[in-house]
Amino acid sequence: MPTRPHSPAPGPAVSTRSSGPQPADPELHAELRTEIARARTLPLSEPWVPSHRNVGSLLERQTRAHPDRLYLAFHAADGEQIRTLTYGELGDQVSQTRTWLRSLGVTPGARVAVLAGNLDYVILVYLGAWSLGACVVPVNASESEERKAFILQDAHAGWLLAESEHLKEAERLTQRLGLVLVHLCEPGTPSRSAELPRFPQDLSNEPSTDALDPGLDAADCEALLVYTSGTTGPPKGVLLDQHNLLADADAIVSWQGWSPATRALCVLPIHHVNGIVVSHLSLLYAGGSVVLCRRFRSQTFWGLVRSQNITTTSLVPTLLEFLLDTKAERAPEAAATLSSVLCGAGPLRVDTALRFEERFGIPLIHGYGLSETTGYNCQLPLDLSDNERLTWLRDYGFPSIGCALPHHELQIQSPDGTPMAAEERGEICIRGEVVSRGYLARDDANRTSFRNGWFRSGDEGFFVDAADGRRFFFITGRIKELIIRGGVNYSPLEIDEVLSSHPGVHFALAIPFENRYYGEEVAAYVVPEEGAELDREVLEHWCSERLDFARCPKVIFFGDEVPFTTTGKPRRIELAARLKTRLDAYRDTQFRERTLRAGHPQD
Description:
GMP Synthetase, Chain A, domain 3; 2 domains; 14-stranded mixed sheet; 24% strand; globular; disordered N terminus; disordered C terminus
């Protein structure tokens, strides 16, 4: 058997809800600890006290309440159902998983890394680790091997659980870093090594007698160490505790009105907080059911919605576009159960939102959230009429991300922390029970992001107050992605929207490039529709009719690759870096308008 690693270096976090949980890193200065603690509380509200002491007690309560109800159905990419788990079976197998993790040397406060795609038994690992008081480190399989090595080392992970298709890479990583390797393999599949621990094959068929530790408190238990997929510099580890997870689950369930009758379809990756917290933990919290798909396929999506009686699903804008690209129409039966589609985790265009609702007849509940703030922080209210919802999606240039959820407070602030007035643009700032413990061992990033008792998101936005007193928020783009031309900030999303509205354009991103005259100028990267014939002059004229000259792309590149992350976010900064050498040729160019707008020549 492999040797057991030493306990991970960071110990359990020091925390109390009265003063706010503290970061796990003991090197953080007292002032910074205070800032993070302030951002994790709502000063005008009593601290939220979860009805469950920890995730393990939530699971125990739900499995006792309805052991025969379906919790999880796992489907292959083609839609075929592979396995199911009732709540009773889930409780037994999570208990067995907890016992098995203990046998590997996993203890409360330890960190266990998982390198896998969407698999039902990965959920067992998550819940087993949390019920033990251990922390899960999900590793995105699309990262390079060097970035994976950095994450595993930075996290002080002691174990790496890897599925078969990533096992060779995992073997190299564990040998290099001295971790225990576990093979996550389909039941009945032989392991490549007789000595390698296997999951779930190594689980005992006997009921576990390993009881929950009654002393585990959600605020003291690290739960997830999620690494941001930044395009420059090393990834940053976002440390979430069980209190964060329970608070966001409670907020989502209460806002959405989810119940034991709710049945969610999960097609998003479960290495991300959306797939983990929104689609799994929140359904456990509500006592509902989850249909987990190995991979998203637009061809099988509506069939699954119909055959599985899906009532809700959480998607990203990229998947909406894929569904709109297919010829498949929503089956009439799907509308009978699917009451709404949640959408977040990436920039949503007005055109995409309106086309989706018009074509499929399903309300789109747009929202916003970050890994640093656990999951969804705001969403459109469900009590809006169709006309009201479409107004908020259409009439302000950007689709509204809705109102703050329970246990959250949002504010638009200037760089110095001054609250902005309605419709003035500033940085989206968040505080409340869902704010993370901060970035692991990154005082620099924590000082930048936690200020004046708020978490500063790095996203630009504004708000509009409705007649009924509710405050609706909007996101206009990443502050780091803003194009600053002649000292004026321009949102690239506005330019994306115009470019993508051309019938011959499949995908488009506006990107900045260095320019001697204006500091930055606007370029565009465009992927044409299949078979479409596009030239630069046609696209330039299209933009000039819809945008002022400052926003019009001065340089246009064509390509065939759609640069997205696994969670559907465009890699704008990475793309700009890749095109930098070609864009440098235009650094000293003074661009002048060459077309007529509204019948008037402009210099």
